[in-house]
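Hypothesis: this fold can be encoded by more than one sequence.
Test: take the structure tokens below, design a sequence, compare later.
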């Protein structure tokens, strides 16, 4: 599984990158045929809102791409919410596949 983490409009510290990597490695327990994962962590400078930290996760699996996006007041929270949504999508996809 190829993992790429990109940050937009800010530089991520090692603690945030480690948090993301640790969670992404858990994806293999839900689906073992993941080809690649792209994580985008963005700081929305234009909006200047409370929820201006954006996490996007794109997962490539054979014959399909899964995508989630969440916004909140911290990158960790945004990523965790996006990760939980992604796990739900993966589980739903596996159920469809085996029916």
């Amino acid at each position: 599984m190829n993992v790429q983490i990109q940050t937009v409009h800010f530089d991520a510290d090692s603690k945030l990158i480690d948090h993301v990597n640790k969670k992404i490695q858990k994806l293999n327990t839900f689906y073992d045929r993941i080809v690649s994962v792209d994580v985008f962590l963005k700081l929305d400078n234009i909006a200047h809102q409370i929820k201006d930290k954006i996490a996007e996760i794109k997962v490539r699996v054979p014959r399909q791409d899964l995508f989630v996006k969440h916004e909140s007041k911290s990158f960790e929270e945004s990523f965790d919410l996006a990760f939980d949504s992604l796990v739900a999508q993966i589980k739903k996809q596996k159920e469809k596949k085996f029916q």
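The first helix runs from residue 14 to 25. Residues 2-97 form a domain with the Double Stranded RNA Binding Domain fold (CATH 3.30.160.100).
Hypothesis status: open.
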